[in-house]
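#structure-requests
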Amino acid sequence: MDLVTQIDLCMECEICSDVCQSYLTAQKQAYLPISRLKAAGKILQGEKASLEEIEGLYTCLKCERCTKVCPQEIDMSQIVRKAQSELLKKGDAPLLVKKVKEQMEEIRKTGNPKLGAPEKRWEWLPEKFPVKESETLLFVGCMPSYWLKDIAISSYLLLRKLAIDFTMTKEEVCCGHYLYNMGEIELAREQFIENIENFNRLGIRRIITLCPGCYRTFKDWLPELIGSMDLEVLHIVQVLLPVLKEKGDTNGLKYPRNLEFTYHDPCELTRVGGIYEEPREILRLCGINLIEMEENKDQAPCCGGGGGVAGNFLDFAVDIAAQVLDNIPTSDVITSCPACFLRLSHASKKRQKGKRLYYVSQVLEETVNRSV
């Protein structure tokens, strides 16, 4: 079904408005999912959208909460993405759209979204760069490589400690998630081809990702643009669960600190990818007491960083994240997404929420270190 036909299916029941975090936070008419559909419809049919309507499109988190509750299952994220794609083609695009395009061009130029110089991508490594042949590649991703180095370090050391076979490549560049997600399909295709050529040169048949965005990109979007391939894509929690199950049965695992945690579900891993039991099972194997949010799993709220919103409306993203933190019942929060880690920890500091954020491998590495 084409996207304009999908838009016409909307009955304006407004169920989506009850779960749209950007609308609930800002209370702006243009941020309503229904308003976004109408704005996208105008753009897709060649009409001119107002600046307010365009802002509404670029404040969509693409979290897919609205699609989950929509009686017609309208694919809001894909419709917004396509409208953004059309806006990028216009020579008279507003400043907001031009800013997004500049961010995309930076990714193609430097291999990352302006997080650091390419030669500094591996400065986090706690030892000499490992030279090893393997069909399994650890794809670290941009954010852990440059800004959240503890996530990269703990994940790397945990995989090593558990004797999980993998290699890495100094030619790693951005997965291309931002390019596709913001509608620049041709640049995304170029990025995907560059990555696939790197993987093929190394003989890679299996990829372990730390980031749900990288996971979705390689699993869903890359094959969509360049065709299916013999490549298994896994998030790190999927790799760790069977290994830790075996270790738990033999040596026993026990997280050394007596804390209660809440696990925050990342949108692209849970609502899109359907992976929500694996991280919980891993954490319970470590003896961790989990206290759930009222909205969890496929109903879990977005951290505020989805859809590129934080890159263009940072204070607004902090507002959304702060509201998420208000609904987390514990002081200690675990997530399996570097972007969620960043957005929630930043909001906790900015708004003095007193929450401590952990990436799943940080907790697991500490547990495994104490059990050997």
